[in-house]
Design goal:
Length: 164
Amino acid sequence: MPLTDKKYADRIQTAFAKYPDKRSAVMPLLYLAQEEYGWVSPEGIAEVAELCEMDPTQVKSIAGFYTMYSEHPKGKYWLQVCTDLCCALGGADQFYEELKQELGVDDGGTTEDGLFTVEHVMCLAACDKPPMLQCNFHYMENLNMDKMRAWIAEKRAEAAKAKK
Ligand code: FES
């Protein structure tokens, strides 16, 4: 569904209302495109460029600069595990290895069911709560694999229920 669909009209207008010109709303609209397409796709780039009255190349360069925008298709749950120093001291490396094993993917990989993408990232400023990750921009902290297995099972059950 394109961003021009009426379901997004209010959010787009709200973004535009915050800034003196349309170009300044490019980042919130990129979030919207990512939400709609699951990543910052070429369609999303083109639509944001049109809405913001910008060149698509400019919009793509902005999306490419920031790590919170994904330039590749990803799973429904985008798990970014911090493996930076403080978290590494708190077991993040082992946690990340076990999480990848549990999901059967490598770094940056997506599970076959399309539900989970995992990657490691640098500090997310929750250094006192390792292991931690960011899932679709929501923090999950003080993790261990028992918690993760339960959470993964819950998300898989929700997905299976939604298919019925
Ligand atoms: S080192 Fe992991 S959140 Fe800071």
